Amino acid sequence: MSARTSSPPLLLLSIALSACSSGNSRSAADAGTTNGGAGGSTASNGGALAAGGVGGSSSGGRDAGSSAGATAGAGTSSGGTSSGNGAGGTTAVSGGASGASSSGGASGANAGTGGASGANGGNGGASGAPTVERLYVAGAATSGNGSVLTEYDVTTDPVTLKKGPSLTVDGLTSFLAFSPSGDRLYSTDENGGMLRSFKLDVTTGAPSVLNAVMTAGHPTHVAIDSGSHFVFGADYNEGKVEVVGLDATGALTTWVDAESPGSQTHEVVLSPDGKFAFVPCKGSDKVAQFHFDATTGALDANTPPSVASAGGAGPRHMAFGPQAGFAYVIDENGNTMETMAYDAAAGSFTRKGALTTLPSGFSGSSTAAEVAVAPSGRFLYGSNRIVNANGDIVIYAIAQDGSLSLVAHQDTHGMQPRHFSIDPTGKLLFVANLDSKSLAVFTLDVTTGKPTFVTQTDVAMQPYYAAVNPHAK
């Protein structure tokens, strides 16, 4: 392949489920451009958040600077410690009022209108159980080393959050990818320099480690192909993209390919038809374009091999719309949202222009982070990590020609919204406010695209990622 590197074979790590190592190093939590300032305590609707507090500038580095980190030894880093099921309380919300969130201890559901007892009491316990989704939140542990991966049961009407099983693993789990079957999960470990696989219990949603493999770098993003044959890791510090095979059980196997498309590779996104792969290279101000062989896992540079962003923009993440004729790239450094026209036959983009992600008249400091298109394809969302203040979600309307127009801005009710996601129904928005150690939940108006704040909960970690498993059975 044109840009293939001679990366060494991956080292398979043994599974150690009984305990996680306490000696593994961890980089500073993702603080955007915060210059050493602690994120202050914030409160909304009576629910005080834990005080934020991660320092360090991200200039030239990934967010708070994911350093080379200590590479964990075999037999110590693929394990995790589970806290079991049913420990968390339920946050019940009806009519948009914020409910109390329990951070532990057995608790029955706070009943909705009518006061029915038991979980998901809803409107007086009437027949017809609410739809339940499985939300997974991952991030850096707030005490000791390692990361926490927690499942929450989410009901949509009324909106409730019930904390479920939680697992502690080594290293820094900063991004997740769900298998199309819905019963496997893959994660990064930025500090340990590895990718990790999990089995998800179909009844409880509880994660348990399958295995982990060492990588040639420190992956900040993970993705999986639609056939569940390959997993992709974007090694930010090393400017690499790696492809790892999967066996019949969903466990990670061996290195298949590695490419070096540019500086500070931040994400791998597959085209809707699975024939092409795209890699935003923040440090090179471009999005690399590859052919992807779904049989062998090989990546080959497309022609042209990349599409340029504006100088200094720092393309971070991207998202396709359901129509697949356009994609949108959020620029971390430029605080801009780029519109890319997509040629599906050629697997290549043409840049059409960019809009600011920041509110009118904004005069502070901020870096952009995540981007998502509503399932309807009518609205686009992006997050702004504003220094020393609550974050912001920008909402755009998407026209038939792919162009964008501003709809609104929404306070995230927490600091440093590193990640956010929209549930498969398009009616719920989940925001991981890293510095506030909280998850904020919003309903989405499918007609206007505007969010309405519902509740927030302390997630007992610095959350790097929060999303519903779209394939959960």
Quick recap:
With 473 residues, this protein is mostly beta strands. 0% of the residues lie in helices and 47% in strands. The chain has no helices and 33 strands.
Radius of gyration: 21 Å
The number of distinct helices, counting runs of at least 4 residues, comes to: 0
N→C terminal distance: 38 Å
Helicity, in percent?
under 10%
Largest sheet: 6 strands, antiparallel
Overall outline: globular
Which secondary-structure class do the elements indicate?
Answer: mainly beta
pLDDT below 50 for ≥5 consecutive residues: which ranges?
Answer: 2-79, 84-127
Rounded mean pLDDT is 80
Proportion of residues in extended strands:
over 45%
How many strand segments? 33
Structure description:
- The strands form 8 sheets. Strands 4, 5, 6, 7, 8 and 33 form a 6-stranded antiparallel beta sheet that branches. A 5-stranded antiparallel beta sheet has the order 1-12-11-10-9, with no helix packed on it.
- 0% of the residues lie in helices and 47% in strands.
- With 473 residues, the chain is mostly beta strands.
- It has strands at residues 12-13, 43-44, 47-48, 80-84, 90-92, 132-141, 147-156, 159-169, 176-178, 184-189, 194-200, 207-214, 219-224, 230-235, 240-246, 252-259, 269-270, 276-281, 286-292, 299-308, 315-320, 326-331, 336-343, 348-356, 366-373, 379-386, 390-398, 404-415, 417-422, 428-433, 438-444, 451-458, 461-468.
How would the blueprint of this fold be written?
Layout: E1 12-13, E2 43-44, E3 47-48, E4 80-84, E5 90-92, E6 132-141, E7 147-156, E8 159-169, E9 176-178, E10 184-189, E11 194-200, E12 207-214, E13 219-224, E14 230-235, E15 240-246, E16 252-259, E17 269-270, E18 276-281, E19 286-292, E20 299-308, E21 315-320, E22 326-331, E23 336-343, E24 348-356, E25 366-373, E26 379-386, E27 390-398, E28 404-415, E29 417-422, E30 428-433, E31 438-444, E32 451-458, E33 461-468
